[in-house]
Write a structure and sequence with these properties.
single chain; alpha/beta; 5-stranded parallel β-sheet; two-stranded antiparallel ribbon; 13% strand; Cysteinyl-tRNA synthetase
Length: 290
């Protein structure tokens, strides 16, 4: 039967659980997280310092979006692989205005709220030492101690980029499609510096529009299981250093493949969107009919 109404679907029984491996920036070597057999991942995300001065507004620049975004992808990937996750976000001292701006930005980007936000030491909230620290490249997380270190590449903005509230800032809440910012920041490996431009944002918006339209169309066809090779390939990419860029490329390929039934395409996109967080099934049941 065609799918109408709710787009929530059961994850196929063939879902894979693969050990999550992260390249530790300190050593350059991949490490398994968590290192012990326990099924709990403790993640500490470190928000970079926010500049001060009369012209900085809230002071939240693009890197202040990308660091918690990668922490969110880490948590979503771990959960997809059957782990429980506790995430703490450490921040510098924030004014009430900046704290509200941070909450708003994380909400519109689809970043799951961390267990605790604050500038205090995180061990008590995590229930032990962090397994992973996520921080901006070139910054000192400040007494991070043990655990793998993920350094997130810098983000710059073109001065003329439409949707920027000021040079060097990026407010997704002021864009026509906030999740296009999320998609754009996920398109490159997390270590790679990113430059946000108007054409790049426009391209991300087009991709979201096209994928959501396709997912809504595929949802009207009989459900089919995710092909085993696609499931294995996508989970392996995510589990090996959070290779979201490879998953996005895989989805672009799947969308064009004639040998994958529409129902299987729907299930593939819906399943992987648990990590991507792009609300790809948003338009299911709301297609415009001729």
């Amino acid at each position: 039967m065609p799918r109408t109404g709710s787009h929530t679907r059961a994850v196929p029984a063939t879902s894979l659980r693969i050990m999550l491996r992260i390249t530790d920036t300190r050593t350059g070597h991949p490490v398994e997280v968590p290192a012990s057999p326990r099924r709990l991942l403790r993640s500490c995300v470190h928000l970079p310092d926010i500049g001060t001065g009369p012209d900085t507004g809230t002071g939240l620049g693009p890197v202040h979006l990308r660091v918690p975004l990668i922490g969110d992808v880490l948590a979503r990937t771990a959960e997809l692989n059957g782990l429980q996750v506790v995430t703490v976000l450490t921040t510098p001292e924030l004014t009430p205005e900046r704290a509200l701006a941070l909450d708003r930005v994380m909400a519109v980007l689809g970043i799951h709220p961390p267990a605790v936000i604050g500038h205090h030491r995180p061990e008590a909230s995590l229930g032990g030492p962090a397994d992973v620290h996520v921080t901006a490249a070139g910054t000192d997380p400040g007494g991070a101690g043990g655990g793998a270190l993920i350094e997130v590449g810098r983000v710059t903005t073109a001065p003329s980029t439409q949707g920027l509230s000021a040079p060097g800032t990026l407010d997704p809440a002021e864009t026509a499609e906030p999740l296009a910012v999320r998609l754009l920041l996920l398109t490159s490996p997390y270590k790679t510096p990113v430059t946000v431009t108007g054409p790049a944002l426009a391209g991300a918006r087009r991709t979201l529009r096209d994928w959501r339209r396709s997912v809504a169309d595929w949802a009207q066809q009989p459900s089919r299981p995710i092909p085993t090779d696609l499931l294995r390939q996508s989970h392996a990419a995510l589990a090996e250093n959070l290779d979201v860029a490879a998953v996005l490329a895989l989805l672009a390929e799947v969308a064009e493949r004639s040998d994958v039934p529409p129902g299987a395409k729907f299930e593939t996109f819906a399943h992987l969107d648990r990590v991507l967080g792009l609300d790809l099934a948003r338009d299911v049941g709301h297609q415009h009919r001729p």
